[in-house]
Amino acid sequence: ECPFYLPLIVFRVVVWSCTYGVSGASSPAFGIYGLLLVALGDLKGGAEFAEFATGLMERSSDKSEFASTNLVVAMVTGNISPVANCVKPYMLGYQVGMEKGDNFYGVLNMAQMLLTSLLVGGP
Question: For residues 63 and 12, what is the distance between their CA atoms, to the nearest angstrom?
Fold first, then answer.
């Protein structure tokens, strides 16, 4: 049941962010919205939303959502450019996540980095 709510929740956060302004949940929401667009076949639109999420994340002084946003943006990047380009962003997401105490998304970034490295035949 829960996976069916993800697009609805993400869309609601995106609409609220456009209506009332951005918050800490905005950058991951825009990144997930981009990932949903990529899953539906809109690679250009997905890339634009991922780029927007990255911009929000970089401009924010609060880096608490960095690891979660970075994870989603790297997943979008893997669909629009060579998969090997995702290894460094996943590693950065791991490092920042662990520094900020976001162990869950830090470890998810590390797992994705290891799987991506295995896929592309890297070290």
Answer: 22
